[in-house]
Amino acid sequence: MSPRDRASADAEQIRDALIQAALDGYEQAAISGLCEEGRWEAAISAMRRLDLPSPPADPANR
Question: Which helix (H) or strand (E) holds 31?
């Protein structure tokens, strides 16, 4: 797999993780009875709390 393909796959995994975190946060907020605005705030908060891996160092910046 080329470095470009690997970076694209990594980005896709991160995007998927963020979407899932947002959906989970929104759903939990809805179950808790939060209003629409509160649900969105919970979704954003869930994405912010997600533990993402650090990006690899770019060899061009060394």
Answer: helix 3-31
